[in-house]
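The protein record minuted underneath.
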Amino acid sequence: MPRVKTNRIKYPEGWELIEPTLAELDVKMREAGNDSNDGKRKCEALWPIFKVAHQRSRYVYDLYYGRNEISKELYEFCLEQGYADRNLIAKWKKPGYERLCCLHCIQPRDHNFATTCACRVPKHLRETAVIECVHCGCQGCASGD
């Protein structure tokens, strides 16, 4: 007889400390996904989802690298379970990308002339005062701001 597979996940030590915040961010993510898109441009519909995903990844990143409040095992668990974006956190660790909002902003294939997003330009070098990113809606994620 074959073994019965169960979906029981073993949570690492310290999970009960971060679970309420991650559950709250999951609720925000569901609300952002269920919001109506009436009167919004096509790209604007995804902005709330990008913001919540950024918050969730930043929360896990700050707990591990900033405050050292969670273990490596719990950090890896959060990355494996999809609570944080591994690639975005890898960019945050590099100089010049500490405030990066999303990975779309630095991918040259998503922009004209194979450059990066306008939100990556420092504020003192911009010609106009306010720039909104088309991909995620941020108003500036350059580290020099």
